[in-house]
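Hi support team,

I've been running sequence recovery on a batch of backbones for a student project. Most finish fine, but this one hangs at about 90% for roughly twenty minutes before it completes. I'm not sure whether the input is malformed or the queue is just slow. I've pasted the structure tokens below so you can try to reproduce it. Let me know if you need the job ID as well.

Thanks,
M.K.
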């Protein structure tokens, strides 16, 4: 085989992987404060993602704070 991997990716396999990615839920959570004085300030707004994500209905925003 000369070090080459056999070509095993079929069109059906690639489509299944693409579908899995597009259907995967996106969990957005607040991850607390960080002591990083050399980081630029940032604060993400989940609403800004809806027009940038394929199938935005999969976005799930988790409330900040400890898990319930």
């Amino acid at each position: 085989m000369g070090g080459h991997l056999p070509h095993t990716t079929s069109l059906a396999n690639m489509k299944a992987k693409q579908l899995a990615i597009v259907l995967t839920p996106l969990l957005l959570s607040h991850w607390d404060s960080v002591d990083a004085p050399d980081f630029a300030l940032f604060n993400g707004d989940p609403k800004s993602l809806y027009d940038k994500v394929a199938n935005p209905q999969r976005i799930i925003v988790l409330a900040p704070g400890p898990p319930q």
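--
Follow-up from support: It reproduced on our side and the slowdown came from queue contention, not your input. The first strand starts at residue 26 and ends at 28. No action needed from you.
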